[in-house]
Q: What sequence folds into this?
């Protein structure tokens, strides 16, 4: 077992590691920080809404039918983050039709997710999953 | 080109922290590593990594186009699919999102939703439904999964 105790590791010919790692193909590099999802949540959007599991989420709020707001613990630098969402039911998903997620930005700490049926009506979903990428503050 | 071969790197001033180039990396506990994000905040590398993703052709004889940590896919019915993970998730309640961006279908909109199958650590099911409410096969289908690995 060999151990090395250091505070800094720096490339010899340049600044070294700047947050990029070599790609799978080996022909380019990809940005590690930019590629990380900064927040995610799986929540039950029916009744009294509740988080099942999450990362970087401090709270959730039930705004209205199908409309949930997610507050992150560590804020984003701007409101130009990207939220994607999908939803559905544990039971027959044909009941009431499909569910689709649309997302909106409220602030650097609050993202909105609105779930709806195909006819445009708001829908509370048993399974409501959101992922947020972007720049942290 | 110089290479150092060793088993463990520990911070000298603070055992849990090393700085690579100009980026601090912290491992305060086992299986946990954070990295400074775009600003000054730290973010978890493990929690931020997608644990599985795939692009598949859901028409005809279905097939995976490209994937990560996917053991296999099953055609359950029209627009109805299941997939398994090569390395299982730690909990059943992991977040999944999907889209059909890239589909040549021009006359209706299709979305990814659930099949009625409860989530599991070993795999999940999903369904493609278009705006008329009926299920339909799609190509391509993109799925991404986050959460905790077992």
A:
């Amino acid at each position: 077992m060999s151990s090395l105790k250091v505070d800094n590791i720096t490339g010899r010919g340049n600044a070294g590691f700047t947050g990029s790692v070599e790609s799978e193909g080996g022909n380019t590099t990809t940005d590690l920080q930019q590629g990380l999802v900064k927040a995610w949540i799986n929540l039950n959007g029916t009744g009294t809404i509740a988080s099942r599991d999450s990362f970087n989420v401090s709270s959730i709020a039930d705004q209205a039918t199908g409309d949930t707001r997610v507050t992150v613990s560590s804020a984003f630098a701007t409101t130009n983050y990207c939220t994607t969402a999908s939803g559905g039911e544990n039971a027959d998903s044909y009941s009431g039709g499909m569910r689709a997620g649309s997302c909106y930005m409220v602030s650097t700490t609050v993202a909105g997710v609105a779930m709806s049926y195909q006819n445009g009506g708001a829908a509370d979903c048993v399974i409501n999953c959101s992922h947020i990428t972007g720049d942290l503050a | 080109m110089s290479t150092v071969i060793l088993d463990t790197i520990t911070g000298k001033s603070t055992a849990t922290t090393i700085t690579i180039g100009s980026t601090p990396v912290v491992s305060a506990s086992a299986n946990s590593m954070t990295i400074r994000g775009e600003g000054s905040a730290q973010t978890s590398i493990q929690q931020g990594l997608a644990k599985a993703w795939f692009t598949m052709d859901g028409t005809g004889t279905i097939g995976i186009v490209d994937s990560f940590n996917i053991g296999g896919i099953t055609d359950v019915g029209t627009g109805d699919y299941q997939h398994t993970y090569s390395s299982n998730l730690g909990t059943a309640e992991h977040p999944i999102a999907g889209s059909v961006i890239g589909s040549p279908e021009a006359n209706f909109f299709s979305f990814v939703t659930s099949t009625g199958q409860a989530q599991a650590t070993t795999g999940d099911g999903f369904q493609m439904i278009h705006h008329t409410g009926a299920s339909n096969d799609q190509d391509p289908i993109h799925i991404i999964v986050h959460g905790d690995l077992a």
The CA atoms of residues 28 and 56 of chain B lie 38 Å apart. Chain B touches chain A through 64 residues (CB under 8 Å). Chain B has one helix and 13 strands.
